[in-house]
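User: Before I run my own analysis I want an independent prediction to cross-check against. Here's the chain; please return only the structure tokens and, at the end, one sentence I can use as a sanity check.
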Amino acid sequence: MLFLDQVDIRDKRVIMRVDYNVPLNDGVITDDNRIRASLPTINYILEKGASLVLCSHLGKPKGEKRPELSLKPVAERLQELLDKDVIMAPDCIGEEVLTLAQNLKPGQVMLLENLRFHSGEQKNDPDFARELAKMGEIYVNDAFGVAHRAHASVVGITRYMSKCCAGLLLEKEWKYLGKALKNPERPFVAVSGGAKVSSKLGIINSLLDKVDRLIIGGAMANTFLQAQGVNMGRSLVEKDLVSEAREILAKAREKGVSLYLPVDFIVGTGPEGEIGSGVCPYQDIPEEEMALDIGPATHILFTEVLKDARTVVWNGPMGAFENSHFAMGSLNLAESIARLDGLTIVGGGDTDALIHKAGLTEKFSFISTGGGSFLQFLEGRELPAFKALEECGQ
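Assistant: Structure tokens:
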């Protein structure tokens, strides 16, 4: 796989896949972190005298042109951040757009309209990919957030380009995550949270071959505790996965991996509750209540488990952190990991949001921009974007 600094882009027209799938509220961007993450690569390309065509999806328009999912607000925000004009294309393919692209001068930027306004994007349609490829002479992928998607702008387009490479952000993801998983400094501790065991089974099984210690929190811990015979009251439990949770606990013991679960919880009647009912040891959760956050004793335990860690990979919050009454366990854990002297990597949309909420973004070694891509990378699965870049031009 080639990286951006290995390709001569001077005076060329570059088409770059970015991840501008940002949250919007009545047409206003509420979080521009994904746009900001692309700026180093954009500035590098423009400084080399290239012209730049950017492409991204936004939301789920399902092949229909929906004005509320237009990338126009993104073009306006990008223009502010770059302090230079950003041309907003009326579509992402077609003669009119191609003419605009071909007329770009060195240093100019154009953003194509939402790729998913065309069904060919998600279908990886060859005709759509071929039309998209006409917009540039060199292809750059800087969108780790969609690296696990075999879509036209990620995979198909590379078959019609003579040169393809990874942008600075994608390169950073590749190197940080690769280093953490292939040759980690030890002790290596993985922290897995969030709601569902079902979405993390493959990752946990894969990590058991790599880590020294595994911390499991969030609602997914409930299933593991029930697998040990603990009554979890009304807590979220994936009953059909209790036996698989039991197998993971056994596998951890066989492999000598220390696996840690919460020992106490903040409980309440539900995640939208205006206040928690109090702290309960894990054995004493009331029948009519739910575990909604880890408790203070668990925080002390997890901090002790982490204190000498040299590599930490964290995905998934420890509780229903969207509600401030059940966010303290996740925020405390973020503080503990941020203080560590080692490689600390965070990934996944909820965990990313949590770190920004805590104001700790500068304290972590690396915050991955991917959700599904991050999880598949942890699972050891090949990502379509990386495979496509490796095969481009062969």
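Sanity check: DSSP finds 14 helices and 17 strands in the chain.
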